[in-house]
Task: structure prediction
Amino acid sequence: MKGTARFIRVWGTGQVGTDVIEPGEVVTTEGSLAVVLERAEHLDQVRQTGLVAPETRVFVPGAYDSPDGPIVLGYDGSLSDPGGDVQIGTQFFLQTQDYGTSEYLSLIGATLVKVVDERDYEAFLVDADTALRDGSFADFATHPMVRLCDAASLGAPIGSDGPRLRLYVAADRTISTSTTGTVLGEIGDDLAALDAQWSKFNGESTHPCAVALSTVVPEEVRVAGLAERPWIARYHGALAAIRSLRSRNLTDGRDVQVSGFGGRLVPELADVAQPWDVAQEEAPLLLSTPAAAFLYSAESERIFQVPAAASADVDRLLVHGSAEAAQAGDLDRLIRVRDYFDGVGVPVCA
Result:
């Protein structure tokens, strides 16, 4: 059921991983990629208006799984009310949880964690601030089985989010990208109309996505929290990086340091004003455990082990933004390190 896990994660988070499409690839030209219906009787209607296409994964309550296009996956439980268990098909089980109580969560499988009110949003920001200040990350947020819902509304890069990626059709026939999102239309509207509404709302916001959390977090509160934290996209990248290491059993999450959070791997670099990587959403992250150092690219989801002799050079390049500016080390070696990571498609400086 790996496909099920991937597509329900796409629907919940608004993020599409490289296990679903390649970086830069168009999500879909027909229909939405992942659609959740609250009522089974709406399936034929959303098919008729083109929201569900042959390549769509559509999650339908009480339905029998169908491998024919569109791929219909039946589910039992609620995908709109956090705090319960959802069974998808006969083999896949999913937990849903609100952010505020997730630190007390006992994980038994794949879990979607959702911000459901302003208190949850404040708790998310407090955890991000703690990570930046102390280098300490909430354990549940970096667990390989956990994903944060509506990530772009929480400051992650918006990427491919939008109606062409995911849709939620509520019992009252209204449609959004999220269970807590702005109504973009209703059954009968086509994908182009929904996409236009989504673009309109986000075009009016300084911090997209302005849609997915709009019914539970006032837009002015959401935007103010993100504006005070210009590094928040890097925080999302750090969560993904630690999650990646944990999934490979390279750390338990408690012994990992992420450069830029709670200091730098090279301590004196913490005093550099306006470090290059903080302003770059796509800059990779340098991590260190007692056993090794690693470079993680959030954009491509690739991870590289960095030789001990090169980790300080990588940190200097990420902070200073060029080999010439980072000349506390050997310039020729810095250039070699820079060129190597350029060559594998993960640049560590401008």
About this structure: Residues 2-227 form one domain. The first strand starts at residue 34 and ends at 37. The helical segments are 2-13, 43-48, 118-134, 191-203, 219-227, 232-247, 308-320, 331-343.
